[in-house]
Amino acid sequence: MEAGVPSARSRALAVLSVRSRALAVGLLPAALAVVLVAARMTGRLAGDPWPVVTLVVCLVAAVVLLVGGVFAAVVLRASPAVTPTVPLSEAAAPDLYRLVRDLADRMDVPPPSAIALTPDCDSWLEDRTHAAHRRSAISAGAESEQGAAPVLVIGSPFLWWMRVAELRAVLAPVVAGTGPSAHPDIADARGFVRGLDAAVDVGNRRGLGWIGAPARLLLRLCRTDATEMERGVAAAASERAQGVDYGLRIVAQEQVGLAYAGWDRLLTRVALPAWRMGRWPAHLDAGVVSALTELSRRDRLAEGFTSRLGERPACDLLEQPGVVDEATSLLAARLFHGGPAEPGPDWSPVDWTAYPEEVVDRKWRAEAARLHAALDALAVPAGRPAGASGPAGPAAASAGPTGSAGPGALPGTSASSASSSLSAAAGPATIEATGSARPAVDGFAGPTLERVLGYLTDPAGAGAASEALAGRLSGDLAREERAAGPAAGAGKARGADAVPLFPLQPPRSGRDLLADHVTAMVCCAAVDSAGAAPGLDWLDGPVLLVGGERRSDLAARVLCLVEDGNAAPLRDWLADLGVRPEKPVRLV
Question: Residues 313, 162: contact at Cβ < 8 Å?
């Protein structure tokens, strides 16, 4: 027997003793009432005030029994939280099931009842045998049967990045946990704690404080013992797994840390911009391989890791890796962004090859339109393009055969009209101008970069201009997000009020938003007038490509403009690339 099992069992008994004491407290008034009634019937408590005392105690006992019975029913019947996962049947991954069963046989523990995937860099066992799960059809397979072993939940990035032997080494201590989990006292204690947690949730959602308060009290009383019980279970599982691929486990744990770093960058830098546009990358797990390979190339500490790519990847254990990747990618959008559970017209998948045009370019255009809508609201006039000799100037002639600044934008048209047409094309980023552009005295108005540069470098007070524009952008963006909801508009269309369970980023400051929008405007101008192109970096997300090479020297120059009101470094950068700030850009 592993050293951790006796400790875990003793802690489980301590948790169950809390339940026993709570039951004793609930039965105490009834026991007292029985004693008083028996004493009255035998004549031992004759005369006043015992008839009244007996009646009051009986009434109190009845109320306590009723309340206690309802509370116990809630604890027993409330559905404990179940982690959203992608179920993986044995037919979809027979080799993976064989690998897990072989691990269980070698460690002499019950095999997990099923396998599921989660879009996160973690793996654990999850009990789904609660009666509420069977009633609500959360689990319809063998994992929901009474006494079934826990479900093995595997982080999907592990399957794509790790090799088969590494995955086996990582899963060994997790699978070993099915042994202690089968102990009756430990299982009973876990069920009691999960029931209390579910009762607290029921009390919060339905406003039943008389249910939530005692449940929270019982949770506090058994919190320490429950924590120590889980530590004992983990210690026992780790000890049992010592003889299975122990040497390889050290190397595999390094891959776990690397996978987490690359997965976090992929979600926050690459997936999040797409989710905000109403698109979800359909193959996030395949993208994590590219991101981690790039991270390995950049990090000197990870130089030897790319040699692993010649070994068999763990995703080969799946029959249809692409289908599984798409399902976990959609679940990731739901968990980390609050997107709908199903794709739709406003929530469609995007392939990596189409990401630059369908996400990066649209993101830049949407932010540029929002920037000019904010300038319209502040009544900022547009400047006349350099060298213009008439109302339209040479910029209008170079805008295209229809006289437009790119498709659909006419010189003399304010940014508000362009931004309003963007709302249909930009999905969730619904841009509405809250004001109209003041007619320029020089006869030219349009969404130009020169307009932005001129406003932010106003000698009357560049700091005040930046603050005003940043505040306007923050307010506009907050209104858009409240109107569209976290599901990027698609959830609203389906009547959902979905919220992300694990938000990825805290709110951005007004200065950060302004810098992002100015950068987007610069990139749009570079694409429209200097032959640049939108691109994708696996670790940094949207990037600007000039001549096929990434330009990473733009951020510092934009910050110099936004924070100091100094446009000289950015103007030099634009001149070096041949970007024309006076030329109107396309906003849709």
Answer: yes
Written as six digits, the tokens of 436 are 């109209």
> Does an H or E element contain 222, and which?
helix 209-240
Backbone angles phi, psi at 128, to 5 degrees: -125, 35
pLDDT tens digits, residue range 157-212? 999 999 999 999 999 999 999 988 888 999 999 989 999 999 999 988 888 888 99
Whole-angstrom Cα distance, residue 32 to residue 58? Answer: 8
Q: Name the token pair of 204.
A: 């919060």
Residue 527 confidence (pLDDT): 95
Give the Cα-Cα-Cα angle 319, 338, 363 (nearest 5 degrees).
95
Residue 222's pLDDT band (boundaries 50, 70, 90)? very high
CA distances from 26 to 23, 33, 74, 79, 118 (A): 5, 13, 15, 23, 41
- Report the candidate in 431, 437, 526 with the shortest Cα–Cα distance to residue 473: 431
Please choose, from the candidates 6, 4, 64, 11, the residue with its C-alpha nearest in 3D space to the C-alpha of residue 33: 64
- For 201, how many CA atoms within 13 A lie in the half-sphere containing its CB? 13
Backbone angles phi, psi at 443, to 5 degrees: 85, 5
Helix axes 246-265, 164-175, angle to 10 degrees: 100
**Rounded Cα distance, 483 and 88, in Å:** 36
**DSSP assignment of 439-476, as one string?**
PPTTS----BHHHHHHHHT-TT-HHHHHHHHHHHHHHH
Kindly state the percentage of the chain with pLDDT values over 70: 80
Query: Poorest-confidence range of 108-112, 114-118, 126-130, 506-510?
Result: 506-510
Nearest to 134 by CA among 146, 148, 144, 147: 144
d(CA 285, CA 155): 10
Query: With bands split at pLDDT 50, 70 and 90, how would you rate the model's confidence at 392?
Result: very low
Yes or no: say if 185 and 213 are a contact pair by the CB < 8 Å rule: no
In the β-sheet with 533-537, what is the strand arrangement from edge to edge? 533-537, 541-546, 549-550
For the segment 6-14, the average pLDDT, to the nearest whole number, is 91
**Gap between the terminal Cα atoms of the chain:** 67
- As a whole number of angstroms, the distance between CA 63 and CA 519 comes to 67
Q: Among residues 130, 132, 88, which one has the least CA distance to residue 112?
A: 88
Using CA atoms, how far residue 2 sits from 136, 236, 290, in Å, is: 37, 5, 41
Q: Residue 71 is which amino acid?
A: F
What mean pLDDT value characterizes the chain?
A: 82
